[in-house]
Amino acid sequence: MINPSKKGKTKMQSFALNTIFILISLSHLSIVVSSSKPLNPCNGDFLHTQAYRQMQNQTNTTHCKKLSSLQAQFAWNYHKTSHNQTQLNILIGTKLITNMGWLAWGINPDLPRMVGTRAIIAVKVPNQITPSVNTYNITKDIQLGCKFQPSGIDFMVQNMTGVDDKDVGFFSVFATLVLPQRYNVSSLNHVWQVGYCVDGLEPKMHETSLGNLDSKEVLDLETGDCQNIGQHRRHMRKIHGILNIIGWGTLMPLGVIVARYFKQFPIKLDPCWYYFHYCCQVVGYILGTAGWGLGLFLGHESKYYTFHSHRVLGICIFGFTTLQILAFQFKPTQEDEYRKHWNVYHHFLGKTAEESSPRRVEIEEDNKGQTKEGSSSRTIEVQE
Predict the structure, then answer these.
(1) CB 70 within 8 A of CB 212
(2) I want to staple 108 with a disulfide (CB 3.0 to 4.6 A). Which of 189, 283, 321, 362 is the partner?
(3) C-alpha angle with apex 184: 182 to 188, nearest 5 degrees?
(4) What is the DSSP letter of 270?
(5) From which domain of life does this come (predicted)?
């Protein structure tokens, strides 16, 4: 192997750093773009459900929108009462064609998250004509396995009704809330959730898909505009995936291919192959590490929601590639006695990292669906 000069190395390092700076800057620019979204009107079967027609007749719905996940649609109207409180009529519905399941909607006075939410949950079980609807306080104790039972909440709820409209396959919940002043109607933190496991009338853990994780937003009841909290995370997950695909999945393997096949055959690029190999490895490592770091941040933000296989493979790939990059600094010369052992180690580690990357992409694709890492015997999952 021909060693590059210091000047050549400096040029490659400068090019690598400039490339990564441009890519990270573009990624950062896209992340800080506002996620505020205008009203996305309801459509389809929801507008023809029995529950929606009843709400229209009784309260004259003024807003209706499709929510960002779980195929849910949400209708509401509100007005101020004489006691400076807010009377809010809500209707939420989603496709729930199974014989058993539950639908939850709630608001959080502090943050757009599940912990601390005052929820209304409708439960349907086989052979029950009318779904059971109750109020619940969702606390961290639920995550610890405490029984999830109906409880009073800090505002009045009236006319709670669950409707299972089998003609169109929609399961809906209607309620009238009387909100105190602490609930800001211009930035209301609301969350929703769907589950398919019920023990008696107790909701059990929902499926662990990314859609379940993203079911929260900050809503302006007056305009219908929302700040989609889940949209931020979806955007960051896309950046995480793009950086990893380009870094670990493209540039690192490309560097391996160049080192393996372009020394002599089919095209002799000596010594240019080494510079290209070095550049691919360094740029790929920096991009992959940036994606890996973003993945750590996403994992920290969703502490109750973990893709174990994806995380373990990511840590392994980062470790393997770090050792590979260090090999450039500690590579022995051709005359050193242990050079052949270093060659074996370098080849084996590169092959391992190369094989791990596609497997991690496969697992990530599986994670986009509905994973089953949780047991149905656990209570409803509490998400930060």
Answers:
(1) yes
(2) 189
(3) 120
(4) T
(5) Eukaryota
> Could you tell me if 192 and 215 are in contact, meaning their C-beta atoms sit under 8 angstroms apart?
yes
Q: Where are any strands of DSSP class E within 46-187?
A: 63-66, 73-80, 86-95, 101-108, 118-124, 132-137, 156-165, 170-179
What are the φ/ψ torsions at residue 67 (nearest 5 degrees)? -80, 165
pLDDT of residue 57: 81
Q: Is 130 helix (H, G, I), strand (E, B) or coil?
A: coil
- Residue with the two structure tokens 């107790």: 202
E strands, 125-265, in order? 132-137, 156-165, 170-179, 188-195, 198-199, 202-203, 216-219, 226-227
Six-digit token pair at 106?
Answer: 């709630």
pTM of the prediction?
0.65
First-last CA distance in the chain: 52
280 close to 260: Cβ distance less than 8 angstroms? no
Contacts of 254 (CB under 8 A, 6+ apart): 280, 284
Contact status, residue 307 vs residue 371, Cβ threshold 8 Å: yes
Per-residue pLDDT reduced to its tens digit, 29-68: 544 444 445 567 888 888 888 888 888 887 777 789 999 8
Phi-psi region of 127 (alpha: psi -120 to 50; beta: other; left: phi over 0): left
* Cα–Cα dist 334/57, whole Å: 86
Residue given tokens 């620019």 in the structure block: 29
- Which candidate, 384, 322, 362, 323, places its Cα nearest to that of 241? 362
Mean pLDDT, contiguous 10-residue spans, the chain (384 residues): 49 56 54 51 85 83 86 92 89 89 94 89 88 91 79 92 88 94 91 90 80 86 80 78 87 82 67 81 89 85 68 83 77 71 72 63 52 35 42
Give the pLDDT confidence of 309-353 residue by residue, as tens digits: 777 888 888 888 888 777 777 777 767 776 777 777 777 776 676
Beta pairing partners, 158 = 176
Q: And the tokens for 162?
A: 């669950």
- Domains in the chain, please, with CATH? 6-33+232-367 (1.20.120.1770), 39-227 (2.60.40)
